[in-house]
Each structure stands twice: as structure tokens, then as C-alpha cells.
Specification:
Blueprint (H helix, E strand, L loop, with lengths): L27 H40 L11 H18 L1 H11 L29 H19 L1
Helix pairs in contact: 1-2, 1-3
Amino acid sequence: MSSEPEPAPGPGQNTASGYSLMHCPISQAHREDLAKLMKECKEESFWYRALPLSIGGMVVTQGLVYKGYLLPNKRFGSLPKVALAGVLGFIVGKISYAGVCQRKFQNTGVLPFGPGFGAKFGPGFGKPDKKHCPHTCNECKANSAKGEGHNAQASAS
């Protein structure tokens, strides 16, 4: 017998069994694959979209200042306009690559931008609908099939 009390369950944990209600059954191998995929998306979005749009915007803006279509700042010259064009090009490039990354994640079976992921707009703004795992794996499919079969038997009786 131990005189030490059992630790209180943390947030999101079930008191009876001690497992987390936010459990997501992605294995460690899947996590490594997802981390590699996320790194790949970041690198590709930088090299294929953000950097070219940033440099292109900076070159075009400098050309417009040189030709006289945009007036340079009296103190800093063309630097503020060129820097702003570079930052905006970078942001637009990163955002424009989001669809490609989303398709890559969907091909692996994980929906990073699917239901239960991120903020919800509308009534109850900022509150997620349900706390569940947004991907579909064999374990989830099996649990879902068991739940549907159990509900069908319960409603029949």
C-alpha cells in the first residue's frame, strides 16, 4: 500500500482510464514522415514561390522608381518601397503554395486544413466544433465501424 495519493488527471485526460481525450493515433513513424513533408513544403514554398516573387517584386519596384513612376523617399531613397515589395512578394509566395502543400498532405491521408483544425468562423467564433483527430487511419476506421455497428444494434432494440 502506498500512502502517496494518485496524481490528479491533467486537462484533457479521462479520470477512469488515464488516457488523453485528445489522443491521436498517429504513430511515431507517421510523425517523422509528416515532419519531413512539412519541411519539404517549407523549402519548396520558399524556393519556388516566395523567393522568386520577392525578388521579382523588388526588381519591378526598383525599375518603377528608376523610371520615375514611383517617387523615392527624400531620406531613404527607394529602399522602403523596394523592401515593402520584397516582403509582400514573400508573403504572397508563401500563401500561394498552401494549396500544393494541402494536396501533398491529403495524398498521405492527413488533412491538416480539414475539419477540427484551426479556428472556426461563424457562430461560436474561435471555438472548435469537436476535439478529434483530423486524419483517417486504420485504427480510426475500425473504431468508427465498431461505433456504427453498435449504434445500429442499439437503435434496432
